Amino acid sequence: xxxxxxxxxxxxxxxxxxxxxxxxxxxxxxxxxxxxxxxxxxxxxxxxxxxxxxxxxxxxxxxxxxxxxxxxxxxxxxxxxxxxxxxxxxxxxxxxxxxx
Length: 100
Description:
single chain; mainly alpha; elongated
């Protein structure tokens, strides 16, 4: 099923907006800072994959991506509910806008 170009543009614009909001999230910023520190420590040694620093960096990277993906998913879910309700011609409850 192909979406009309205007709908694809609207979806992309919303994705860009949500991504920009997520970039400002304090928790994600903190985790990314820790990830960067772990990444720098990773290359302080020669045998990278066998070091505890590599495991630390890998764990922090996975956590940061998990936070980012969770926020994108939840916002997409909220947006999908809003779109569905809007298409059905019903009013949208205000409490759906709260952060999960």
